[in-house]
Amino acid sequence: MNTALEPSIRSATVHCPLPAGPQAARAARHSAAQILTSRPAQCPHGAAEDILLIVSELATNAVRHARPPYALTLSLESGRAGIALSDASPGLPRRRDPGTRVLTTRGRGLQIIHALGAELFVSTSPHGKQVIAVITWPAR
Prior knowledge:
The protein is α+β, with helices and mostly antiparallel strands. The protein contains 4 helices and 5 strands; from the N terminus they run αβααββαββ. It is globular, with a radius of gyration of 15 Å. The two termini are 18 Å apart.
């Protein structure tokens, strides 16, 4: 096997503790952008933009509705990314009913993530939860 190709085809997982407070969302976006930039062969530009939006929505939801500590885990491989945002709150996220027409600028994060084609999961523990989004795209 050509070892020069090895780094571009291996999966990458990065776990980043995030600061408490509103700066958590910016730190999460920055961390995700760094890994996506370092692995362009694994993730096309359009998928990278979707991943950054998902990271932003998950981190913002954690800051607004949960309590620290927060952490981002991003797993990236060719054709798929898993994005997990953990927090210390036991409360489960609630998705707004898609049939409800509400004129608001808030409360649509999970709908946006779903509209991007991501699957959403929640994993709970005695220490809080992880909200997990998995997004796929055609592998190159």
